[in-house]
Amino acid sequence: MTHNPDIVLVNPGGTRKQVYQDLGKVFSAIDTPFWAALTAGYLRNRGFHVDILDANALNLDPDETVEYLSKANPRFIAIVCYSQQANVSAPIMVAVGDLCRKIKERMSETALILTGWHPSALPERTLKEEACDLLVKGEGFHALADIIAGKDHRDIKGLWWRNGSGVMHGPAPENIRDLTGELPDVAWDLLPMDKYRAFSWMCLKDFSERTKFASIFTSLGCPFKCSFCAIHATYGEHRIRYWSPDWVLRQIDTLVNTYGVRHINIHDELFVFNPRHYMPIAEGLIERGYDLNINAFARVDILDRLDMKDLTTLKKAGFHWLKLGIETGNTHIRANVGKDSYGIDSVRNAVAKAHETGIEFCANFMFGLPGDDYGSMQDTLNLALELMPAFPSFFCAMAIPGSDLYGEALEKGYPLPDTWLGYASQGYEFQPLPTEHLSAAQIVEFRDYAFDTYFKNPAYLNMIEAKFGPGARDHLKEMTAIKLKRKILGD
Length: 491
Prior knowledge:
Layout: E1 7-11, H1 16-20, H2 34-45, E2 50-54, H3 62-72, E3 76-81, H4 93-106, E4 111-116, H5 117-121, H6 123-129, E5 134-136, H7 141-148, E6 159-163, E7 166-169, H8 179-182, E8 213-216, E9 219-221, H9 232-235, E10 240-242, H10 245-259, E11 263-266, H11 275-288, E12 293-298, H12 300-305, H13 308-317, E13 319-327, H14 331-336, H15 344-356, E14 360-367, H16 374-387, E15 393-396, H17 404-412, H18 440-455, H19 458-468, H20 470-480
Parallel strand pairs: 1-2, 1-3, 3-4, 4-5, 8-11, 11-12, 12-13, 13-14, 14-15
Antiparallel strand pairs: 5-6, 6-7, 9-10
Helix pairs in contact: 3-4, 10-11, 11-13, 19-20
């Protein structure tokens, strides 16, 4: 840490055990705080002295974090409340709240700012609940620069602050229009790049290089309106903005050549969506000859229609993993959440095409979506067993702050978690939404049953060993030996 910077951007730590229980020791990723590095790059380009403290990667508790910050003595502290995605950001707010209190106890004169997914979804509530001085709604780049420059609060777009017992805010925030032009630099040099760890499933062939890992966005936003997704609370719009392929390739050049990165996770909501974006990136990676292992999100209906030549190019470029939001095996349930533009046959075809080119895939499946009962949840598990992805993720539907389901839950009086840790799907306090047919406890119980049924399935384990070797099979057996404790189930 440097001394007396204008601002320190903090990626909070202290939640790995609470969010993942014992799975956090080995099986979870330690993700790159891309938003903090991107924000730091933006602020440095405007002449500000910036530093980043990644308390999560350095495994610092709140007291240790405050000790670092006290020694740095910045003018401003901004806690960057971004996790891997908007839909999994709420659980970190427990640690954020604890850190806010400790910072203000020791550094009461230093202005403390909150920015990120969750503060954007619930700005007024967050400002009232947490011991922060200011809150930035939206992407935050312009607002943070204006705060450091001393601009009048009333004129700063996206800024919220207290006024006595009330809350005030400036004009509505505006998004960055030209990502490549306005956000040209990522401050990778301010991150402890040797401390990050890839998802274990990305490294099933070789676990020895998990720390050669980084995450990156190549676009921001999503044009779709899934009712369970909270991303639009930050962006305030339904569209995608792209960095140029050349910009993306420059970032990957830096990651590979400066930091020795081997595994890359692309966080875009929809990377395999616009071929004018992803194909030049893939072709550029092939020209460079990097031996990379990349994961990216794709959409089922896009993959279903995709030319096999494009898939072959992606595979050759190092895209060995695609993540698909399959969500449910029941057509009626899919329609309930706004994903009825394709059917089960499209899902099967998309997966078959990926497998034909040698691309493995992660698939997100959800239990407890509106209308779900035991029969429809079994349909979802049956589809997972049929498709047999190399590593599916089994979630429960949650009323995530900023999503349409959250608004509906408030309107209808559905029970919501008592603390933000109740939104951690692998945490002890997890509490998803009930449906008209099932209680939250019944849904959690089925989710955990589905997890065990899938990952202990001999046919699945045989497939994993054939593809990745006996070490991968042993790794998954170690994972399934860890039983998650659930408060809602009386553990």
